[in-house]
Amino acid sequence: MLFKSNLKVKSVKTHSFDQFEHMHCTMVFKDTRVDLFVVYHPPSCANGLKTSDFFDDWSIFLDAQILNSRDILITGDFNLHLDNPDNPDVMKFNKLLDVHGLKQHVNELLDLFFAQDSSHLLCDAVVDPGLTDPCGNYSCGHFAIVVPLNFIKPSRQRKTVTFRKYINKSHQLQNGHMDGIENLPHP
Predict the structure, then answer these.
(1) Distance CA 87, CA 46 (A)
(2) What is the DSSP track for 12-75?
(3) How far is CA 80 from CA 38, 39, 59, in A?
(4) Do 111 and 76 contact (CB within 8 A), yes or no?
(5) Cα–Cα dist 155/165, whole Å
(6) Cβ 111 vs Cβ 142: under 8 Å
């Protein structure tokens, strides 16, 4: 995770689950605290995992986060095609989001981003990174997701850098200004 040094970001140890991996970070800037979760749910068929077990773990996870967090943002690769709303797994996933007051902000991708319905953190919309072919078809299922947040932009930090004067030896060699170089010992 990359962040500016004037944001206070701490990794938080949380309960682990068998059906998905996740990372929890707390971000603090001025008086705003946000819990960010990055989740990876592997494809169930590839690992012998059961989708029903994922939903059990996912529900427990969401229960705990909604009770413990003021503002939460969740993103990750869930390996669910939410663009197929008639799929029973998608229906169950969307129901869990709805019950926990979460809203999905990315459409038709495997990589998802959601926050609480009442969240004041999100700007108008998640920005489409525009990674399609000329016909508008996605070239793959995974993309960068750009999420503008309603944080007050941190001020620029000034940093003093000290350095010693550098002499460009190759430039001096080209111009014949390195007298006596032939007398230097070879390494």
Answers:
(1) 19
(2) E-----SS-EEEEEEEEETTEEEEEEEEE---HHHHT--HHHHHHHHHHHHHHHHHH-SSEEEE
(3) 15, 12, 16
(4) yes
(5) 31
(6) yes
CA distances from 15 to 22, 30, 64 (A): 9, 28, 10
**32 burial level (CB within 10 Å; 0-12, 13-18, 19+):** middle
CA-based nearest residue to 13, from 1, 22, 5, 4: 22
Nearest to 41 by CA among 92, 93, 79: 79
For the beta sheet containing 102-104, the strands, ordered from the edge strand earlier in sequence to the opposite edge, are 8-12, 21-29, 32-40, 72-77, 111-116, 102-104
Asked whether the predicted pLDDT for residue 36 surpasses 80, the reply is: yes
Residue type, 116: Q
Residue burial 155-173, b: 16+ Cβ < 10 Å; e: rest: eeeeeeeeeeeeeeeeeee
* Per-residue pLDDT reduced to its tens digit, 77-134: 888 877 788 989 989 999 999 999 888 877 656 678 888 877 777 765 555 555 566 6
Alpha-carbon span 110 to 53, nearest angstrom: 19
Token pair 């996605």 in the structure block, residue: 138
The owner of tokens 């059961």 is: 50
CA distance 89 to 172: 69
